[in-house]
């Protein structure tokens, strides 16, 4: 037990109802002799959450929070991130990373509502999530106490965890009695798999790892066309039908998954220093990213678009490392949001066997000028102007060459 945590009275636990957090719940009660408030968030992971309530009640919890946060998740976290086209290390759409600040935010709010003096999570001491949760906690309440059981207890293996559960009458799911084939985290944006059968990066991930998409080989032989409408950088409709943020992302997940889109096998650099191999499925997000970039292609000025692309890796790294509530992320967000003022219109995509092909884009605020770009005769562009433009840009190159390099 950490020295500054000896007087904890009440703790808000991020609780899934699974084996790990159920053991943590009992361990907190026993180790700290404190009251535990459970918080279970529906972020679109696709699991029934009522069993979490029943388990918490069984273990004597009086204050149980189970909340549907899907709309808030997509509206206030996923969509702002997608305005930036955020991608970590070239490919990862940050599906796990972006969910953590929302969970941390609600835990801190619930702590204030219930008079709790501490919060707790089930992230291990090896991963990124401990950092993301705790930076979120401290960024919102600098005086909150944090309990991270995986860094404190001696339950260092799956076997010892199960033994603890059985000795404390905690139900153990049948599939957890053996070694789990891999670890899964899911929300409305993505599902990730890590560990066990995936730990050797030289071995292809078995097909059973994937749950949100068919393989490209098994996808339909005819393409699916979809039109996505945008207002100020956010997707607002599919095929002309207005949808809420979570409803829209759910629909894009269905369309992308059915066409084998959004699979990623990645070896990434964790914030804590090690490399890890993960297999991710982000079907709707992958479609949304392609559509948003296509929308920006006709509505963003070149300077604004290129500056956004320069800043994007920094922004993505901030989210990956857990700095959602940092001043620098908020500064970048203000710049990104300002750039989206005219990113409105619609984009038509063709989805086919794992591929996304932009086939049309239109906007009432388009900067695309057919009059200027045409190969036919025009009255707005004097090609002779290009000579002076080129000579001025070449001046420093010519002077350097005359000097001798």
Looking at the overall shape, the CATH architecture of the largest domain is Alpha-Beta Complex
Biggest sheet features: 5 strands, parallel
CATH class of the largest domain: Alpha Beta
Mean pLDDT: 94
- Helix/strand/pairing category: alpha/beta
Domains, number: 3
- Distance N terminus to C terminus? 66 Å
Superfamily (CATH H level) name of the largest domain: Argininosuccinate synthetase, chain A, domain 2
Helix content: 25-40%
CATH topology of the largest domain: Argininosuccinate synthetase, chain A, domain 2
Number of H/I helices? 12
Strand content: 15-25%
The backbone outline, from C-alpha atoms, is: elongated
Order of helices and strands: EHEHEHHEHEHEEEEEHEEHHHEEHH
- Radius of gyration over alpha carbons? 25 Å
Record field, number of beta strands: 14
Q: Strand sequence of the main sheet, in spatial order?
A: 3-2-1-4-5
Sequence stretches where pLDDT stays below 50 over 5 or more residues = none
Write the layout of secondary structure elements.
Elements: E1 10-14, H1 19-32, E2 35-42, H2 50-58, E3 64-68, H3 70-83, H4 100-114, E4 118-120, H5 129-140, E5 145-147, H6 158-167, E6 183-186, E7 191-194, E8 224-231, E9 234-238, E10 241-242, H7 245-258, E11 263-269, E12 275-281, H8 283-299, H9 302-321, H10 327-339, E13 345-352, E14 355-362, H11 370-373, H12 385-403
Parallel strand pairs: 1-2, 1-4, 2-3, 4-5
Antiparallel strand pairs: 6-7, 7-12, 8-9, 8-13, 9-10, 11-12, 13-14
Helix pairs in contact: 1-6, 3-7, 4-5, 7-8, 9-10
